[in-house]
Amino acid sequence: MLAKRGIEPDVLVEPTFGRGSFLVSALANFGGLKKIFGVEIFEPYFWQSKFAILEYFLKNPREKKPETRLFLSDVFTFKFKSIEKEMDAGDRVLVLGNPPVGDKHGTKRIEF
After folding, report:
1. Residue 87 DSSP class
2. Alpha carbons 74 and 76: distance in angstroms, whole number
3. Averaged pLDDT, groups of 10, the chain, 112 residues long
4. Quick check: 11 and 89 in contact, CB under 8 A?
5. Residue ranges of the alpha helices (H) in the chain?
6. Which end of the chain, N or C, is less packed with Cβ atoms under 10 Å?
7. Euclidean distance between CA atoms 108 and 23, whole angstroms
8. Residue 68: its pLDDT value, please?
9. Structural domains in the chain plus CATH codes
10. If DSSP codes are grouped into helix, strand and coil, which group holds residue 59?
């Protein structure tokens, strides 16, 4: 949907990537991505996402492979300034994801 609207980021930040669905979808839809950064607190999802990305590239070997950094960390304490230093001036950054609702895996819960 975003790609159809002409949104073409250089950098993707996914602060709560879960099983990696948005990460893989971004790879499939944003061919100009240079870098991907993701944060996930639940270790099984962290590994599942890594394998989903690997599977995507095994099925699509000619696709551009952006630098991808995934962090096993809590989004509430992660130091986002650390990844900001790895971006270039003028990079178009897209922050994409669902808000963490927590509790399912012993994570914090956000009340809306």
Report:
1. S
2. 5
3. 79 94 94 95 96 97 95 94 92 86 54 44
4. no
5. 21-29, 43-59, 81-84
6. C
7. 23
8. 96
9. 9-95 (3.40.50.150)
10. helix
